[in-house]
What does this fold into?
Amino acid sequence: MTAEAQAAPGAWPAPGARPAPARDLKERLLARIASEGPISAAVYMSEALYDERAGYYRVMDPIGAGADFITAPEISQMFGELVGLWAVQTWMDLGSPAQFEIIELGPGRGTMLADALRAARLRPPFLSGARVTLLESSPALQAVQAQTLASAPCPVAWMDRLPAGGRPMILLANEFLDCLPVRQFVKREGVWRERLVGLDPTDRGRLAFLLSPDPLASRDLALVPPSLREAPEGALVETRPGLEALIETLSDRFKTAPGRALFIDYGSAASEIGDTVQALKAHEKVDPLAFPGEADLTARVDFAELARLAHAAGLEVAGPVGQGSWLKALGIEHRAAVLRQAHPDMKATIARQFHRLTDEAQMGALFKALAISAPGLPTAAGF
Ligand code: SAH
It folds into this structure.
């Protein structure tokens, strides 16, 4: 399968089809590269994350205090609750459709959606018209989601790809885009070349980054963000092939029914140079090539790239804004005050959670929210 096809959300086993975990991914990659030659950074990321038998997002249950990383909904219920209020406002912006879909990409442990649906109880017609669809590549996490959402107030189902048509839709994705593989291009001797993963020439039992001897094909050159084409010698730029497929699907969907998608992730508001691929294992940064399948691999989201693709498809974009200001615009200060009053013993914990989600030095600025809407809707809440 090509990097592009694997990078697109979709193409994973149906719920219940649980592949047997395997730990031989590094050996298989070394053998494949030895016989077929180096692979792109994006193909490496695809294999490390989505290999049927050993990919990180196929076999691991990575989220939480004792696992590899922690996410905003796992830090505090306030995050999911405000996403729930955002969804209710979005539903009203869509004209309060009697039947509509909530789709979540990469729902993790299902915590955000559970908190969101609880907050949405204040609008019973929202809940009675909602149908939830989850897209999740990890069978282990699908099982956790089923448990978390066992008493959800609306029907919940799993799907293996985002349908290009359907009911009016509210799409949610927190820390999903950062998992989609990136290609990396480096300018060397004035020419853009692809960064590849090959064998370390001094130790052929190790993976190492190297540069393609060939210049980028002109169709790939077009993927270098326009603002960075004149970057200096040695510059590295990243591009995420999966975004294009995602925007295409949104655009197709919005031709038959209106909708809005919310993306929250860590990343930059403008396209920047630099290698941002990082691997996390048990909350520690590790070498991205050392543990394929056993470490979480992500790269910063380039929100400018996402916005550019959405605009080019004729869709409307709000943001990006910092997660802190987005949550504040939606009322997190008020929500924290109400929680503190209800649980005086938890005051310090709630203050810590609030700080972590909103402070500029914590998740408040690095994490950003961006909404993509069908044309003609009111401005998205919080932007
Ligand atoms: N949104 C959750 C989880 C973030 S981690 C939270 O905020 O806690 C990334 C999630 O996306 C995991 O659930 C992972 O298994 C899933 N995932 C990663 N790549 C995917 C893909 N291509 N398709 C579907 N799910 C994917």
Summary: Residues 1-20 have pLDDT under 50 and may be disordered.
